[in-house]
């Protein structure tokens, strides 16, 4: 927003209401702009509350001051891993000629049979219920916020120049190029299927990219790679489950679309899991303290700030539908924690840990059981509940069943 001098303001309309001066120096009264819709106000309030909480939590972790890495420290960590990344990370990127493209999995627009193929796609789509499309749109919106994730990755790999050619810069560009196909593929499918309000979905994407994301990594590669490993595994689970469900609903083509994306996510999960495993091998104390920090901060889903212009609790409602359908559940999160604690050998870290590192190790090793107990306790507290129905703008305001 450009700030203007008092003199410049004489030649423009004052949009704050009250008195303004035109270029002819006549006193005019300008009406106040209408207030933003109540739903947008509620959404902004939720974002502001979450950001304040994040800022406060970032200053302390279990009563101890949180430290962030300086640019020099970050650069040193990455330099020490550059050769390792060259031989262990970059091979997980597939050559372009061997990679699927969205065009491979959708009707060929240059084919004489394009319209017939689209008609067949739409006929299959008509047999799939709205709740499935809510989950699919949520997955697609998450994928389409790639500019935010690219910026986040660059912030903790120190990639600040597009012409850099070290291993981390090439990984950042290559990973982003592969991820870019996911949103493209789902977006085009949803456009062709005729089951969703495309403009409302596009507005949701616009809002999400503009809102950013909550990431407690603070430019620290340890925390950043831990977060990314969790997210890649979570998205792989979600896309795998939408693939299975599409197959069960009789749409093998849609199952292939979701399965192709899940395959990429599993490969990317393997990459970031390797990075964190190497950090544990080289600096176990720093790695386990970073893991404890991220677990206390919670791994918040990157689409948490999604908003469609109508529902300020859109993410909560979308997540509740995904929970009910088994696309992504709280049990999946507990399994994620358990998987990574085992995969990174947290329980087996040697005697070289500091006192703080040992406390972090104890906390993290107990966490999977605690998460499972909390989930069971919440389920028992809720007891048997009648499902409620919530309108989703993505499916033209139709009511979708969920369980909060």
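Q: What amino acid sequence fits the structure above?
A:
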């Amino acid at each position: 927003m450009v700030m203007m001098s008092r003199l410049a303001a004489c030649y423009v309309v004052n949009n704050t209401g009250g008195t303004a001066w035109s270029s002819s120096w006549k006193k005019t009264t300008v009406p106040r702009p209408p207030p933003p819709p109540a739903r947008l106000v509620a959404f902004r309030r939720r974002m502001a509350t979450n950001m304040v909480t994040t800022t406060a939590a970032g200053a302390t972790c279990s009563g101890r001051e949180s430290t962030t890495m300086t640019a020099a420290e970050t650069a040193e960590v990455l330099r020490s891993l550059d050769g390792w990344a060259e031989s262990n990370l970059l091979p997980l990127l597939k050559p372009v000629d061997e990679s699927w493209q969205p065009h491979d999995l959708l009707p060929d627009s240059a084919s004489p049979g394009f319209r017939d193929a689209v008609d067949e796609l739409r006929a299959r789509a008509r047999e799939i219920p709205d709740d499935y499309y809510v989950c699919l749109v949520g997955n697609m919106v998450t994928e389409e916020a790639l500019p935010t994730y690219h910026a986040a990755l660059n912030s903790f790999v120190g990639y600040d120049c597009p012409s850099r050619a070290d291993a981390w810069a090439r990984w950042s560009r290559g990973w982003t190029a592969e991820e870019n196909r996911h949103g493209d593929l789902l977006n085009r499918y949803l456009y062709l299927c005729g089951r969703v309000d495309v403009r409302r979905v596009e507005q949701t994407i616009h809002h999400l990219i503009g809102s950013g994301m909550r990431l407690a990594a603070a430019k620290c590669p340890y925390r950043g790679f831990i977060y990314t490993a969790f997210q890649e595994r979570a998205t792989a689970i979600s896309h795998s489950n939408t693939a299975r469900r599409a197959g069960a609903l009789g749409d093998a083509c849609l199952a292939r679309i979701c399965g192709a994306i899940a395959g990429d996510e599993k490969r990317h999960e393997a990459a970031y899991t390797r990075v964190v495993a190497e950090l544990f091998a080289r600096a176990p104390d720093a790695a386990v303290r970073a893991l404890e920090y991220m677990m206390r901060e919670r791994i918040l889903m990157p689409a948490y700030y999604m908003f469609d212009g109508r529902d300020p609790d859109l993410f909560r409602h979308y997540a509740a539908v995904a929970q009910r359908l088994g696309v992504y559940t709280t049990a999946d999160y507990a399994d994620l924690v358990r998987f990574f604690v085992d995969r990174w050998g947290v329980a087996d870290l040697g005697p070289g840990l500091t006192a703080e590192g040992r406390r972090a190790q104890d906390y993290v090793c107990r966490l999977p059981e605690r998460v499972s107990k909390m989930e069971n306790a919440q389920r028992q507290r809720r007891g048997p509940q009648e499902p409620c129905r919530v309108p989703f703008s993505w499916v033209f305001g139709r009511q979708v069943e969920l369980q909060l």
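Q: And what stands out in the fold?
A: Strands lie at 18-21, 27-30, 60-61, 64-65, 388-392, 398-402.
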